[in-house]
Amino acid sequence: MDLSKLVAVVTGGASGLGAGTVRNLVNSGAKVAIFDLQEELGTELAGELGEAAIFCKTDVTDEASVTAALDQAVERFGYVNTLVNCAGIGVAEKTMGKKGPHSLKSFSKVLEVNLIGTFNMIRLTAERMSENTPNENEERGVIVNTASVAAYDGQIGQAAYSASKGGIVGMTLPIARDLSSVGVRVVTIAPGLFDTPAFQGLPEKAVDALGKMTPFPSRLGKASEFGCLVNSIIINPMLNGETIRLDGAIRMQPR
């Protein structure tokens, strides 16, 4: 798909991996709708990027909120042919800890945002994509999801997070098969340790130690590197139904 003809929705686009993706896409000639609940950050980023970007306050778990945001994006740019799902949350909580069993509420909340929110965005955006005029490769759209290496190497305290990200990995192929009839590709990225707001507030030594867990390059990944892979997926029509680890060869230990 031609990046210069791209109109992308990026969830969680106001910060972290989402913001890196937004910047990469705009720098490549695309137009982007930033879907996020962080109004101040999202508005600031859209203002920085000018006419190529718009901020739409969006709750990915709410059908009415997503529908209204998609309407706003289409009204501004004419259509949507790319979705990048980066919105997500996490908790650190053992199945059975010193304070008792894992909270069912927090477990459900992580799945609601990470897994159900991703699916909600896919189903509603795919409907819009199905109405697009296909390009020379018969494509009408591309969807890129964000899982995590925790889908495979979940650590102690990551039951909820790993379950949510494992669900995204598991639904990638069947959704790609579902959407093949309308010419929409679906690919998932499973990043390792990346420099995101999740690490903000940690001491510099702790961040350096985390980065050195990655075999090579021995550092935290950069949001721009995640965005670079998103661009590669978009432009390569044979990438479909697959999950790609972007992790510097890391395999997470139990803790």
TrEMBL record:
InterPro entries cross-referenced by the UniProt entry: NAD(P)-bd_dom_sf, Sc_DH/Rdtase_CS, SDR_fam
Q: Which Gene3D superfamilies match?
A: NAD(P)-binding Rossmann-like Domain
Which SUPFAM superfamilies has this protein been placed in?
NAD(P)-binding Rossmann-fold domains (SSF51735)
**Would the keyword Oxidoreductase turn up in this protein's UniProt record?**
yes
Q: Which keywords fit this entry according to its UniProt record?
A: Oxidoreductase
- Looking at the keywords, is Protein transport present? no
Note the CDD domains from the entry: HSD10-like_SDR_c
**Member of which family?**
Belongs to the short-chain dehydrogenases/reductases (SDR) family.
Under what name is this protein listed? Answer: 3-hydroxy-2-methylbutyryl-CoA dehydrogenase
Protein source organism = Planococcus kocurii
